[in-house]
Amino acid sequence: xxxxxxxxxxxxxxxxxxxxxxxxxxxxxxxxxxxxxxxxxxxxxxxxxxxxxxxxxxxxxxxxxxxxxxxxxxxxxxxxxxxxxxxxxxxxxxxxxxxxxxxxxxxxxxxxxxxxxxxxxxxxxxxxxxxxxxxxxxxxxxxxxxxxxxxxxxxxxxxxxxxxxxxxxxxxxxxxxxxxxxxxxxxxxxxxxxxxxxxxxxxxxxxxxxxxxxxxxxxxxxxxxxxxxxxxxxxxxxxxxxxxxxxxxxxxxxxxxxxxxxxxxxxxxxxxxxxxxxxxxxxxxxxxxxxxxxxxxxxxxxxxxxxxxxxxxxxxxxxxxxxxxxxxxxxxxxxxxxxx
Amino acid sequence: xxxxxxxxxxxxxxxxxxxxxxxxxxxxxxxxxxxxxxxxxxxxxxxxxxxxxxxxxxxxxxxxxxxxxxxxxxxxxxxxxxxxxxxxxxxxxxxxxxxxxxxxxxxxxxxxxxxxxxxxxxxxxxxxxxxxxxxxxxxxxxxxxxxxxxxxxxxxxxxxxxxxxxxxxxxxxxxxxxxxxxxxxxxxxxxxxxxxxxxxxxxxxxxxxxxxxxxxxxxxxxxxxxxxxxxxxxxxxxxxxxxxxxxxxxxxxxxxxxxxxxxxxxxxxxxxxxxxxxxxxxxxxxxxxxxxxxxxxxxxxxxxxxxxxxxxxxxxxxxxxxxxxxxxxxxxxxxxxxxxxxxxxxxxxxxxxxxxxxxxxxxxxxxxxxxxxxxxxxxxxxxxxxxxxxxxxxxxxxxxxxxxxxxxxxxxxxxxxxxxxxxxxxxxxxxxxxxxxxxxxxxxxxxxxxxxxxxxxxxxxxxxxxxxxxxxxxxxxxxxxxxxxxxxxxxxxxxxxxxxxxxxxxxxxxxxxxxxxxxxxxxxxxxxxxxxxxxxxxxxxxxxxxxxxxxxxxxxxxxxxxxxxxxxxxxxxxxxxxxxxxxxxxxxxxxxxxxxxxxxxxxxxxxxxxxxxxxxxxxxxxxxxxxxxxxxxxxxxxxxxxxxxxxxxxxxxxxxxxxxxxxxxxxxxxxxxxxxxxxxxxxxxxxxxxxxxxxxxxxxxxxxxxxxxxxxxxxxxxxxxxxxxxxxxxxxxxxxxxxxxxxxxxxxxxxxxxxxxxxxxxxxxxxxxxxxxxxxxxxxxxxxxxxxxxxxxxxxxxxxxxxxxxxxxxxxx
Lengths: 340, 813
Description:
Helices cover 43% and strands 20% of the residues of chain A. By secondary structure, chain A is an alpha+beta fold. In chain A, the strands form two sheets. A seven-stranded mixed sheet of chain A has the order 1-5-6-10-9-8-7, sandwiched between helices. In chain A, strands 2-4-3 form a three-stranded antiparallel sheet. The longest helix of chain A is centred in the first third of the chain and has 38 residues, at 54-91. Chain A is rod-shaped. Chain B is of the alpha+beta class.
């Protein structure tokens, strides 16, 4: 009996070595391990073995069966591995072939920059107000302390659509509209399109501004600088500093021009900052008493700060765009570069 | 505003360099746009002493040996006729730069670098220079206009740089003066600021003069239009002796770009530059009945100004008249009829304040702008009028060119002759600044700026200088004066220390706009930004009818170009123009959008603010686009905003293809339209004929407000069935003209359990027959309170088939 088992074992190894496919492997299993297979046959023969030898022989057969199963599993695993390998190889693609693109558009750079700016000020508690683009003289000039004969009207070339109706020349009329509608404390941003009769490499007849207004008790020039410090750090980087210098706007007093330290050279002087180490980015100041009074706010009780930022200016600085016209040509090769 | 450094030094002992002064001016609010060195193109020119000079035979040249302090004698060939041994002339050494002149030796044609050269075989190591080659003229240095070498004084130090000797070691400050500081539109005005910022005393120009006993008989001045001319000073001068002005005056005028003309004319120009007061001088002998009347012009009047131009006047123009006619266009230019000539012996000086608004309007409407009008437009104070007149009369005497008579007139609307007086507090000033500037510093600064200040504890009694018409509201004005002198670097940034906490961020409508934009970006669209105005031609290009409602547009009264004249009533032209521009640049496919206002007047002409209506404009172009790719965008939008869009054929939109365009309906209301660009519009595009892409352009426009009004305000969750949705396919053979929408609607209306109905196949074949098509739909049945059995579905399908048969006479295939 033992010799028979050993012979069967040898034969099994030969059969297993000859297996080439899953089908043959299944046949092998049927032939040796199946219900009618050789090993099951051995078990049936066990009855003919003497009672003394039977336990040992039974164990021997069981060991053989376990061995056969193990061999079967080994071969099967190896075969699976090879087949998977072959399939993978077969399915392999040339990963350097061009991608199939799912088209994805993007926002206009002005919108991207505007959103970033709004985000910074929203975090400081600013709401967003958008006023009309076509304004009356009263909101655009008079109530902002720009009287009919005021020299500031010379600074701006205004588009008129009627004697007293203009395309707003700045977002500042938004200040008036907000203060008419709300009582302090006020913290509001007024982003929007503005219009001036001017057109060259740095001027477009339409461009975007963002006005900021804070009206509360005890607002100071220090607050203006502190707030703008935070703003420029978020927009241009944490190393950037602000510098105030005197300026003039009819609706603020004192008025300041705000420069940022050059983020390109760190203030050492380069072509971007024209060697000065500073870049002019916005104007602002303490809200003029007359403007507060024009909106029914008592300047003895409340004070305010206001600032106006040219969004194109910020976008052009951030992205190194040297011609404002590019922002309005809408050439897709240009637009596709901006990702928010 | 151009100010010579040397002229400033007449009024302030400046002990800093021009560069340091530039910094100081910048810090106190006067940006120097350019610091221009006088003779900036000239370098390496020294005093040369011609030791030997011999004519070179048969030429106009002389061969000179020149001592230029270099330790050796330089051989220089010179063509000037006035070169002689023993003379001293400017000598440009090898490597020097001077101005290059043309054949006439006068016209400057750039900058020349001196090189060693040979003339007629003679080596020449440098160049002796004329005045023109150094950028000089007779006004800047006497003798500089001579057609030959510039002769230097005998005592000039050989080898020394000629620049200090010729007054060329100077700078011109080109200063940007803010609109509120009209008082700084003069050399004296800037000098006042310089004195304050350097903390030096200001030396006022001399204004003393004596008058003779003579009065002009019958001379009288009346101002009829005091509202336009609140102050008018006139003073008679006689026994004029015409002649040249002194060199110092000519030099200052020349540094500021003015040519010397004659002593009297130079005085008026000098006073305008120095004091900021435009002066005028009338030839007294030309004045009819020795009268001066300041009044509005009559509508039939005209005037010929000094430059020979004739202007028709109206009653909005202010004129200076004699007893019969206008003799000057007030504040802009004198009349030719009363001009000062070399024969003038008696004159009347005018120093006046004209209202800037009126001068600006007249100057603009007549197209006549002068140095005087630009000063008036910025604003002149009455103090300046007084100072200007006194200075002019002083100069008449200082130059000895006339007799100041006793005929003096001062007509005034009665404005006070003192500076504005108000009280302020030190604490109030510091409250605005947010820092504690010491009281002494505040007082010191204000006094340096010529404010009179009396202190009583915290309270200041302040009188502003008369020329500071910009000072109006007390503490904020003073805060600005203090901090610009004290220094902005003292401001300590604080982050809204004392202000209330507020809740910021976008409101719901703003968030919705942002979501719309992002949804479109996700669909492959690029946001564009186009101008809010275009021209009628852009509407013509869309074939919009003359009487189309969009033709009622708001027109700019003062457009800058003829292609930007109307506020846009539609975004479509802007979209189309952007597509065309992209195609021209070879961008053959793309998707673009813009969410922006269009404008609709409430009435015409415009008398009140118009409606500004946000529209969503979009376009898609390129080979891969068709009606359905764009419709896909619409579906994505509808899905993003939780609504359903329906479509209705749009046959009456002139710029869209009548068979390939649709109105977009939301909740049964039209909110927009989209479709393929009409063939006739496409055919007219300015594109190359072979450009294939031009045949596939799709445009759309949605009234954003109309859409928003139909969007759900808020949403509540709908219970979902616990039972599975069941699908069943249905293929129908229908007439070619049958629309998908009709079939879907008919299927849906047959049975309330029908959810979505999706078309998944359209098939045409001979077997089906000519003019017919097979359409296959997937129908989704949504269970309510129990699972759907095959029997249920059969029942529903029967209902659907019944409806199809009944309504559309369609049998199942």
